[in-house]
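We close this part of the discussion by returning to an individual protein. The amino acid sequence and the backbone structure tokens for this protein are reproduced below:
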Amino acid sequence: MAQISGFLKCIFISFNVFFVIVGGVIIGLAALSQAVISAQVENQLEGQASGLILLYVIGIVTMVIALVGACGAHKESKACLIVFLVCMVIGSLMMFLAGIPVAIARPQVEGVLEARFRQFLPLDKAESNVKQIADAVQTQMHCCGLFSYKDWENDIPDSCECTEVVEKYECQNINYRDFYQMKTKSIYSEPCFPIILHYVLMVVDIGLGVFFFLAALAVLGMILSSIMIHQLRHPERPTVLFTVPTIFTSGPPKYQELHNPPPPY
């Protein structure tokens, strides 16, 4: 005889099927990333190995936990549901422990990035790899310098120049010295640091959303599995989440109100 509510069982199994699909998607993304990276140089593949292994582990663990929960609900196995509940408790704690420090550190991201980037100034005297990265960023984001075009001093690269193809971006004309003569160049007026900061904060916000969304789902899984474990332990006792006692007090009968004379004044 079934001891768990059929409606609750259906919700819980659907909940775990969703996580089985999520785990499969994570494994598929890891496999796709491995196939793309394997076409590159071997030393680059070694640098990405830890990230791919982490994706595989997360996907496999997610699928296994979800299958344990779905199996426990389908077969009404108390042991499987207890294992699932413990995993949800651990998962929710991990998500909160990972998300709360990131949320606390978010307001400090701008100051840390600015201090880090100012170490590369002036850009014209920076190392060659820093110059290459700066050129690539300026070309893709249509900006010039980290905080201003003056970061390049008098050696402004071609990646700062405005072209006719990108007329929608704001440009400015500057005068610079080139071998004892003054020249004019049209460059992007917006620096790169605000754009980089915008994307970094967007990634941080997405990460926070993922952490707390997964934590909320883990708490929901804890609640559902706890209710089912309660139903398995006490099949004869209905699950009552909230009980509100109701007390009705009846007034005196109408005939009594008419029969009794009013008190004297």
